[in-house]
Design brief:
Layout (H helix, E strand, L loop, with lengths): L1 E6 L7 E8 L2 E6 L3 E4 L4 E2 L9 E4 L6 E4 L2 H9 L12 H29 L5 H18 L2 E2 L2 H17 L7 E5 L6 E4 L3 E5 H6 L3 H17 L1 H18 L12 H7 L4 H17 L6 H14 L7 H4 L4 H7 L11 H8 L12
Parallel strand pairs: 9-11
Antiparallel strand pairs: 1-2, 1-7, 2-3, 3-4, 5-6, 6-7, 8-9, 10-11
Helix pairs in contact: 2-7, 4-6, 4-13, 6-9, 6-10, 10-12
């Protein structure tokens, strides 16, 4: 039997009753007794906030409120006039759940793939707008190193690699005074190099290898795609109640600076960097050597973080990046010394 509430239509008193189906009739017992023919029963269109559905029969002011889904489904299949919303069968719920899962999966695929297609279509002015909050975040805490000689050397290399790599957009390199061994690529072709990366590099080809790798991200629009993906995730989370509109944009700068673009994108940037260095007539052996040394730092538990953590140099990637030392040096001796002194302290080159 099922519990319900019965109103006789003449008073406001609610009677607690029990309800059961017998043949083609609905038996109502409790403070009142009624027998309703199932074929005459009509359900209200929508349940109330507590999930109760109101049942009645034409010509009578009385009404019955019940919330039992099994009873409602049985009434529907027995001839009562029930709205679709309250008589869904288990099959319907399973289909609905399956459709929901498919929609979520499609959304995940779209969030992963669409940014790659859309990123090249974003105007450069928009990309620069996306990069400004990140630049401000970093430059608020980090001093920009502005040595003229060192900056000229970096700009000359960047332009040479840009042309060799077929990148049509301008590329900007900025050195920040921070000991972290790291480099970041921002939307709009802006590459930020930490002083720690320059200090850690054994020679010019190693630094040039990292810069060429980052230019690979510029060529493939990886930073813009990542930001579009994170914005999409934030909007999706808000739409399903896992976030709020005020937090959609929160954390985008952190995500760009602390996450890898994915193994496929990193490997593609490696290949693009080596190809660009080769086309530019420069040595392309530095990137693999840089990988190997950073891995040895990690293996010896020295706590090296930064570029290693966001660009995981696995053995396979190091082997793929291996290249001969043929080609010209990326910097003259004077340029390399100027780059290493950009942040105000001249640091001797490391012994090979």
């Amino acid at each position: 039997m099922v519990e319900g509430r019965f109103f006789d239509g003449e008073t406001a008193v609610a009677h607690d009753v029990t309800v059961r189906l017998t043949g083609g009739t609905l038996i109502i017992d409790g403070g009142v007794s009624r027998v309703w023919a199932v074929s005459m029963i009509v359900a209200a269109k929508d349940p109330d906030p507590d999930g109760r559905v109101t049942l009645s029969i034409p010509g009578s002011p009385a009404r019955l409120e019940v919330a039992d889904r099994a009873l409602l489904r049985t009434l529907s299949t027995s001839g009562a006039r029930m709205p679709t919303a309250v008589v869904w069968s288990v099959r319907h719920w399973v289909i609905g759940a399956a459709v929901g899962v498919v929609c979520v999966l499609l959304a995940i695929v779209a969030l992963n793939e669409l940014p790659r297609w859309l990123a090249p279509l974003i105007p450069e002015s928009w990309e620069r707008q996306l990069a400004r909050p990140i630049e401000a975040l970093l430059e608020t805490d980090k001093r920009v190193c502005t040595s003229a000689a060192g900056q000229r050397a970096l700009d000359r290399l960047a332009e040479r690699l840009r042309v060799a790599g077929g990148i049509t957009r301008p590329v900007k390199l900025t050195v920040l005074d921070d000991s972290l061994v790291n480099a970041f690529t921002l939307p709009g072709g802006h590459i930020l190099i930490m002083r720690g990366l320059i200090d850690d590099a054994e020679d010019g080809p190693e630094l040039a290898g990292v810069i060429a790798h980052e230019l690979g991200h510029v060529a493939h629009y990886d930073p813009t795609a990542m930001l579009l993906r994170q914005i999409g995730i934030g909007v999706l989370a808000t739409s399903i109640g896992l976030g709020d509109s005020g937090s959609v944009g929160a954390g985008l700068s952190r995500d760009l600076l602390t996450r890898s673009y994915g193994r496929e994108a990193e490997t593609a940037a490696d290949a693009a960097g080596i190809d660009t260095l080769t086309k530019a007539g420069l040595r392309a052996d530095g990137l693999a050597r840089f990988f190997a040394r950073l891995e040895s730092h990690e293996d010896s538990a020295t706590g090296v973080t930064g570029w290693l953590s966001t660009h995981p140099p696995t053995e396979q990637r190091r082997q793929q990046a291996a290249h001969s030392a043929e080609g010209n040096e990326p910097f003259t001796d004077a340029e390399w010394k100027a780059i290493r002194a950009m942040c105000g302290v001249t640091r001797p080159s490391k012994e090979r």
